Amino acid sequence: MRELGVDALLLSTGADLPYVTGYEAMPLERLTMLVVRADRDVEPVLVVPRLEAPRVVEQPDAFGILPWDETDDPIRAVAELARGARTVAIGDQTWARFVLALQAVLPTAAFRRATDVTGPLRIVKDVAEIDALQAAANAVDDIAVAMRARGFAGRREIDVHRELVERMLDLGHQRANFAIVATGSNAASPHHDPSPRVIEPGEVVLCDFGGTMDGYCSDITRMYSVGEPPPEVRDAYEVLVAAQEAGVRAATVGTECAAVDAAARRVIDEAGYGQYFVHRTGHGIGAEAHEDPYVVAGNTTPLVPGHAFSVEPGIYVPGRFGLRLEDIVVATDAGPERLNRAPRDLAVVD
Ligand code: ZN
Ligand code: ZN
Ligand code: ZN
After folding, report:
1. Comparing C-alpha atoms, which of 248, 244, 246, 242 is closest to residue 332?
2. Which one of the ligands is nearest to 191 CA?
């Protein structure tokens, strides 16, 4: 914070607060906010609604707790703690109502993004964080494998969605963040909302699901075909597998994120499907399902050991079908390491 000229760091809703304290603010109208001063002699204080204070696991060595009662003004309390700060860094996902109220009571302070402070810490995962990502990846791998033995025909997308959510919770995730189930032509919409549509023989089923386990996220996409896939699907899927492999192989330490995107994209372009790959190749993952570093054209960030990110190219042919294949990868000195190891073939299911 001193290097950046940040006098006070204010963290509320979002992943920064649990990253530094282990406590996640409830996304509600009652303000929760950690105030960290750059001054060495001032301890960080978590301003928290009194009724939510029992949820906080106290860490007196790390931060104090200031509970506020229903008729107190928590904005005043934060302003008091941040008094004299010329530059305030505030969490990206802090509600606008609180940012505006704080700007009103701290009129001389310059506000900037807390990401400037927390981003460099969060983007490089240490061993414990990679272990947590691996444990979450193992759980969704097991689900992806189990789904190969399940029948899909005759079920609705939302039924499969519910099964994925339940399985994530059963296997140790505290929260399911998403479970996209997209069948047939619905799969041409990359973030399709699971619907009551009934899955028919001959269709592909895209399952993209992930959640949060002990503070770290999982995210995997696997493809299933109800019966033998039509030739156009089989051909496109072969291209997709090669593109994903090329993206993973390119993800060596020192390589720019943009080059990883380009490596995957080139395979799809050269096979003639370029117009159907409509999104970036991947995103960082950690305490949030999507975070830095983004694997996208223009991102010149070079990979360093401990960067964790998805490699998830897709081919989406409107009105026909959609395909995506996604693994989480960690950059290491020994080369790119996939955390997901579930089979990557197009699984033929009933
Ligand atoms: Zn996505
Ligand atoms: Zn993803
Ligand atoms: Zn995904």
Report:
1. 248
2. 1
